[in-house]
C-alpha cells in the first residue's frame, strides 16, 4: 500500500494502471466504476501537466543557454511567452543576386557560399545562425539583430 501512495511526482504514473486493474473487478454500470474513471482521468491530466511543464522548463533552459552565447541583443528574444520548439543543424547555400541590373560581375543565381547552420524555431519566430571564419567564438547570425529586435 505504501508504494502506491503519492510521494514524489513520479508515483502518479502508477495510478492509471491501478485504476484500470480495479475497474476489472467492478461492474461497469456501478457508481464505483464511474468514480474510478473520473479519478483515472484526473490523474492522467495531472501527469500530462507535469510532463508538459518539465518539457517547457527544459526547452526554456536550452533557449536561455543558446541566446546567452550569442550577442547581447539576442537575449531580448528570451521572453515568458516564447519557447523553443526545434533546434536543427542543417546545410545552407547562399545564391549571389545582382545588386542592380547594371551589375554584371557574376550572373544571378550562382552559388555565393555554402556551409552548415543552426536553425532555431521558437513559438513565434525563427533564428538562423551560421559559423563564420572571422567570428571564432561561436555561431554568427545571418541577420543583424538590431534590425529585427525592438527594445
UniProtKB/TrEMBL annotation:
Residues 1-53 form the DH domain. The lineage of its organism: Eukaryota, Haptista, Haptophyta, Prymnesiophyceae, Coccolithales. Transmembrane segments: none annotated. GO terms for molecular function: guanyl-nucleotide exchange factor activity. It comes from Coccolithus braarudii. This is DH domain-containing protein.
